[in-house]
Amino acid sequence: MTDLLAKFDRFAAEHQTLLDAGLLDPFGVVMEEVLSPTRAVIGGRETILVGTYNYMGMTFEPSVLAAAKAAIDRFGAGSTGSRVLNGTFAAHVGVEAALREFYAMDHAIVFSTGYQANLGMVSTLAGKGDVIVLDADSHASIYDGCKLGHAEVVRFRHNDAADLDRRLGRLPKEAGRLVVLEGVYSMLGDVAPLKELVAVAKAHGAMVLVDEAHAMGFFGPHGRGVYEAQGLEGEVDFVVGTFSKSVGTVGGFAVSNHPKFEILRLVTNPYRFTASLPPAVVAAAEASIRCLMRAADKRERLWAATRALHAGLREAGFRLATETAESAIIAVLMPDQEATVAMWDALLRHGIYVNMSRPPATPAGVFLLRCSLSSEHSREDVATIVDRFIEARASLAAAAAA
After folding, report:
1. Choosing from 92, 107, 139, 214, which is the catalytic residue?
2. Is 123 a catalytic residue?
3. Catalytic residue among 245, 298, 310, 377
4. Catalytic choice (112, 141, 186, 246)
5. What is the count of structural domains for the chain?
6. How do the residues of the chain divide into helix, strand and coil, expressed in percent and rounded to 5?
7. What are the pLDDT digits (tens) for 99-113?
8. 30 and 75 share a domain?
9. Are residues 219 and 90 in the same domain?
10. pTM of the full predicted structure?
11. Which of 359, 382, 356 is nearest to 25 (CA)?
12. Which one, of 146, 76, 50, lies nearest residue 386 by Cα?
């Protein structure tokens, strides 16, 4: 009998090597208690969270918690059905209304996860005879959306408007075309030059979808994303996002002004064949989004903390993926997998939780420790994080010299 899991033996061996070396498991961290958007108990000790994407600190917002509790009492624990059958409750309608207001767009549709939002939108918008042109560094959910659909897929070099122009210029004139971009790329935290990319796409008659998962809440005057910050409202056809980052719960969505947008509810498989989100989740999301409409102070605190951490780590001699603080993701470049795992382990033992990332999640040959900040991180927190990075590096150097 063929073992269908044998293809993963190499990855299993790599994982076991980490455990055999006495290192903590970077893929098995358990948060025994979450104390706040910036603190959790891990391994029995209070730990500063610097890798949760809780950008706007909404997970403990009192109005959000109250809305979730009230929804459980009113609607129960779950929907047990698809949105097109029995799974649409008043809370689902409410969160879509909040999204329309937040984005100042005519239409909004909510999916059960951000992954499914990309899966559904990308696979449905472009079909047989169409072409999807996407950034080479696109998120896995975008690539999987391409696989689920029947469109031809063409990649262009990351954030390269000239290469996008060349790729679009080679397509058959009659082909429908969808250009898929991200506002902030989650691995390195770099921001897309959307103004240039969208201009190229429109010059070639393409529709544009932008994933703003890592920009919602704090980019642009209203927190709508990089497309708003770069003055592209009215130019982007579809915006996709998630509730699992700045909104502080779980779910995904898409918004648009396209007059035919609502038909997607009846033709998008990851929407119509998936049970809808529990009422408590969407009620929490609506409350959170309405808070984000009045969150200028949170945006200012997040940007201040981000700039301070970026500067502090650079001054301490760490190599960062971006020259300036482009987003709330600050990626510390590491030389190889062994060094990455060792530093991640040392940081956690020093009370700092960050994300460890390696290929294929990152570009080829890139290993990094990915930090993401919250509006609730104080100046003192940032100083402590930098100090702990320095202490962790020193502890590894001392161990190597012993």
Report:
1. 214
2. no
3. 245
4. 186
5. 2
6. 45, 20, 40
7. 999 999 999 999 999
8. no
9. yes
10. 0.95
11. 356
12. 50
